Amino acid sequence: MDASPSALLTDLYQLNMAQAYLEEGHTETAVFEFFVRKLPPQRNFLVAAGLEQALDFLQDLRFSDDELSWLIRSGRFSARLIDYLSGFRFSGDVHAMPEGTVFFANEPILRVTAPLPEAQLVETRLINLLHFQSLIASKAARMALLAPHKLLVDFGLRRAHGAEAGLLAARASYIGGFAGTATVQAEKCFGIPAYGTMAHSFVQSFDDEAAAFEAFAHARPKDLVLLIDTYDTEAAAGKVVALAPRLQALGIAIRGVRIDSGDLVALSRSVRRILDEGSLKEVTIFVSGGIEEETLSSFVREAAPIDGIGIGTSLATSSDAPALDCAYKLQEYAGAPRRKRSTGKATWPGRKQVWRRYNSGGHMVSDVLSTEDDVQEGEPLIVPILQEGRVVAHRPSLQDIRTYARKHLERLPKGFEGVQIGTPYPVHVAARLQQLATAVDLRTK
């Protein structure tokens, strides 16, 4: 992404607390962890995403002269806080699950270790970045698993909740298994393949549908896909068949047709028949328009001859589960473990690790959550990323992250790839961690 948001893109209470911490001398090392308290009712698993942008945020965070001047003019804050913010640089450590890791409730996917005011100040934006991309990557992964042999394309920018959300949804959906996006900036920023056809307005601007097709073909001959449902979908497919020989004589091949409305299964069958009978068996059928997981399941169940699918609103807004119950909570301060005991929001204290166990076939069996030093059987999922504000781990390319996610998703337990919610994945809390929570409760008032 080309521009960093303002350092003031935060909650007021972060600045309030930072000032109070400085006044009280509460500046010793703190440990915060980001996790999801519980999975949405419609999810069997989640996919971690957003770490790349979170690291950029931590390393780039600065308060500009203009922002500091505004804070002074607001009259809310002390000179001590302004002076602190003027030299602010993130100096802490970050441990995290790599992007693309499958995770479950109460498993931390990011840990920040830093002086308390630093670790507190970064909370809002970290949640903002990790929550949204993990939400969309998880939605995309479900869709990709339901339609494993279809080309899925993100069409969500126009319905996304803001420009950044649309751009990051393209990135997160690519991690989750989508082949590309309609968002041009996502190709520029992230190298995600961009896909695009035409809108109904282009066809409507001509008095003759066939003339519209031919004009578009001459203007955009490469990767030509024609939108055929503006008027009569089957009649338009016939016009494509009639046009194809003229275009072929000019070296222009029709790559595909797109259907954006109606009974997509039935129309895909009739259009496939028309194309095949017109010797256009190589022309693909791409569909879009209000597609959800159940729609994808029906395409597969009914063996619809659909090659590619554009998915917009339901993906970019994760409309069936538009938010995760996530949190960034203090787990240790000044060397002492801490925990929250609020009803329904209690946390496990201390610096934690997640160990994952697999069966002989390589599929996930269970996870164990415990303190970092309580080594368990299995693969540890949380790894060091930043040390004293500097990267200590390899920062993978987006393509590498996508590949890593695919391998993790292939190791899901049988049945977890569907939309049906079965037995929850077992995450065991180790005895050591339970004992630590008891000890913290006895110590704190």
UniProtKB/TrEMBL annotation:
<keyword id="KW-0597">Phosphoprotein</keyword>
<dbReference type="InterPro" id="IPR041525">
    <property type="entry name" value="N/Namide_PRibTrfase"/>
</dbReference>
<keyword id="KW-0808">Transferase</keyword>
<keyword id="KW-0328">Glycosyltransferase</keyword>
<dbReference type="InterPro" id="IPR007229">
    <property type="entry name" value="Nic_PRibTrfase-Fam"/>
</dbReference>
<protein>
    <recommendedName>
        <fullName>Nicotinate phosphoribosyltransferase</fullName>
        <ecNumber>6.3.4.21</ecNumber>
    </recommendedName>
</protein>
<dbReference type="Pfam" id="PF04095">
    <property type="entry name" value="NAPRTase"/>
</dbReference>
<dbReference type="Pfam" id="PF17956">
    <property type="entry name" value="NAPRTase_C"/>
</dbReference>
<comment type="similarity">
    <text>Belongs to the NAPRTase family.</text>
</comment>
<feature type="domain" description="Nicotinate phosphoribosyltransferase N-terminal">
    <location>
        <begin position="8"/>
        <end position="130"/>
    </location>
</feature>
<dbReference type="GO" id="GO:0004516">
    <property type="term" value="F:nicotinate phosphoribosyltransferase activity"/>
</dbReference>
<dbReference type="InterPro" id="IPR040727">
    <property type="entry name" value="NAPRTase_N"/>
</dbReference>
<dbReference type="InterPro" id="IPR006405">
    <property type="entry name" value="Nic_PRibTrfase_pncB"/>
</dbReference>
<keyword id="KW-0436">Ligase</keyword>
<dbReference type="InterPro" id="IPR036068">
    <property type="entry name" value="Nicotinate_pribotase-like_C"/>
</dbReference>
<feature type="domain" description="Nicotinate/nicotinamide phosphoribosyltransferase">
    <location>
        <begin position="152"/>
        <end position="331"/>
    </location>
</feature>
<dbReference type="InterPro" id="IPR013785">
    <property type="entry name" value="Aldolase_TIM"/>
</dbReference>
<feature type="domain" description="Nicotinate phosphoribosyltransferase C-terminal">
    <location>
        <begin position="379"/>
        <end position="436"/>
    </location>
</feature>
<dbReference type="Pfam" id="PF17767">
    <property type="entry name" value="NAPRTase_N"/>
</dbReference>
<comment type="pathway">
    <text>Cofactor biosynthesis; NAD(+) biosynthesis; nicotinate D-ribonucleotide from nicotinate: step 1/1.</text>
</comment>
<dbReference type="InterPro" id="IPR041619">
    <property type="entry name" value="NAPRTase_C"/>
</dbReference>
<dbReference type="GO" id="GO:0016757">
    <property type="term" value="F:glycosyltransferase activity"/>
</dbReference>
<comment type="function">
    <text>Catalyzes the first step in the biosynthesis of NAD from nicotinic acid, the ATP-dependent synthesis of beta-nicotinate D-ribonucleotide from nicotinate and 5-phospho-D-ribose 1-phosphate.</text>
</comment>
<keyword id="KW-0662">Pyridine nucleotide biosynthesis</keyword>
